[in-house]
Specification:
Helix content: 10-25%
Structural class: alpha+beta
CATH class: Alpha Beta
Largest sheet: 6 strands, mixed
Strand order of the largest sheet: 3-4-2-1-12-11
Radius of gyration: 16 Å
CATH superfamily: Endonuclease/exonuclease/phosphatase
CATH architecture: 4-Layer Sandwich
Length: about 240
Amino acid sequence: MPRIVTYNVHRCVGNDRRLDVARIAAVLASLNPDIVALQELDVGRRRTGHVDQAHEIGQRLEMACHFHAALKVEEEQYGDAILTSYPERLVKTGPLPGYDRMRALEPRGALWVEVEIEGRPVQIINTHLGLIPREQQIQAHYLAGPDWLEHIDCQAPTILLGDFNATATSVVYRTLTAHLRSARRLSRHKSPTSTFPSPLPVLRIDHVFVSPGIEVHDVTAPFNPLTRVASDHLPLVMDFEVG
């Protein structure tokens, strides 16, 4: 059964303030995923030793890696990635609109990769929305529109996942569930799915949304000594089948 994971890795700096790319890779390896969506990766940044975190994690997991830089400052980059062991192709990367009244907000983006699962193409979109509610709403509306979820090439089955910085009571959540279904609510099991903050998770701000054609078996946020310290978020894991 295919398994997909979304994980905000906090530039591979844990709650113990230790920079450890190998530890993040170990968390992921322990979950045995087929597809991984990562947020908050540093690539070539001085603050994290100029390491290409996206490709290092990909190499450790023996997965193909596609990275999108939401932020670039000369040679330094920061953004999101999709890793997979399935046959894959990059479809699209791009920025998300910001909130014009607050121009100093951190740039945000999205990344779209098509993977082939048992001969069927599946669209995977990874994103990381902003922190301000109005900014999030603008970004969710854009993702739901013709550039992404309503794009002519975004045919079901589709999985949208990432760190949305918004709970299930938000406008963002309602905007996206008007187009896709919440995987957590489709799960056959009632496993814990709160992901933030990782030492004592009480908020569900990382989500997986699915189209028809994705049959959800379980969604869970693994909570153990390793996941509690490796990042400020827990990973969110979905087991599914392509119908």
